[in-house]
Amino acid sequence: MDARIRDCLADIAQTLVGIDVALFYQANPRAFDTPAGIALRTHRNVDEVNDALERMAAGGYLEAFPRGEGRYTCYALPKSAHIWNTLCLLSEAYIDQPESRKEIIRLIMELRAAAKQIGKKDKSADE
Predict the structure, then answer these.
(1) Among 40, 29, 19, 41, which residue's Cα sits nearest to residue 91?
(2) Cβ contacts of 1-6, under 8 Å, gap ≥ 24
(3) Domain limits at 37?
(4) N or C: which terminus of the chain has fewer CB atoms within 10 Å of its end residue's CB?
(5) Is 54 exposed, middle or buried (0-12, 13-18, 19+ CB in 10 A)?
(6) Could you report the per-residue pLDDT of 59-109, keeping only the tens digit for each?
(7) 28-37 in b/e burial notation, b at 16+ Cβ within 10 A?
(8) For 80, phi and psi rounded to 5 degrees?
(9) Structurally, how many domains does the chain consist of?
């Protein structure tokens, strides 16, 4: 798997919802919408979509635009060839290459398991 895809998955996507959001923006590069709008379009939970959008914005994969005096935020792809190329690589690997898709899902599962282990360690340290 390309290192850019691996980095995108580990740092930005992190979940299947995150992959869906990334693929949504690759398929709809001119999209400018709120978390609720993206959730509606991807058929995902708005809280999970919001988390993915915030991660993507923090990582530079999306731009965040506060609207309505800060009451809500719209997200859009930045004009970056690097971001676009990475999302295209992710799309090709996930949609067009069955073996790569399996590898992507395995990586997401490993990331989630590692995050749960860290959470368990943090809880036991607090006690």
Answers:
(1) 19
(2) 1/93, 1/100, 1/103, 1/104, 1/107, 2/89, 2/93, 4/85, 4/86, 4/89, 5/86, 5/89, 5/90, 5/93, 5/104, 6/107
(3) 3-126
(4) C
(5) middle
(6) 999 999 999 888 999 999 999 999 999 999 999 999 999 999 999 999 888
(7) eeebebbbeb
(8) -135, 120
(9) 1
